[in-house]
Amino acid sequence: MFPLGPLIAALLVIGLTEGKTGIKAWWDRIKRFRAPLWVYAAAAIIPVLIILSSIALASAFGAPTRPLEPRGPLEFLILVPIMLLLGPLPEEISFRGYGQHELQETMTPLSASIWIGIGVLIWHTPVFLLGNVPWPFIITIVAVSVVYAWLYRAGKSVWPLVLLHFQVNYFGGEWLGRYIADEGQVVYSLFFMAFYLIWMSLIIWRCGPDLCKPVSTFGTDDLR
Prior knowledge:
mainly alpha
């Protein structure tokens, strides 16, 4: 997969349909870092708790384990920018910062998030066809799309979404998740999927199709 694909696609579509005005409005959304503290906290903490709980349950149900590779601060600092560019950053500012933002103007935020989730799933099809990712993540991708949309509605910033995406990729896939050996990855991913389905269901039960109202308004562009 070409990691910058969604970003290039978003630029092309915005440029062809809205021109410089649309690109400027999109950029204004991207550079908005301010969001409620609880939104950043949810994006940072809950994914790690889900990963640790999934590992614990998978291990308890007999999934084979292996020692974790030690990670030092230098390795972490090198991996952070690389992993941000290999998914979280280009995908979230495109799929959510543009796709979710525009679709929820013509349908409910929940419906928009499901459609975006399907689009993200299609984008990741090569990974599943190559067998690099266990099949339960197919469902997880759609479920987490609702979580992303909920956080975006609450915080009006794509950066908590980038943070959540990074937590999942780094801690769930690159480091902690590797505690479960390859033979047990399907079991691990089943629990991972279940937790995100629960999170998604709680959001829908609590907020409904609007995925709750934004806690604050930053400008007229947010209401487009």
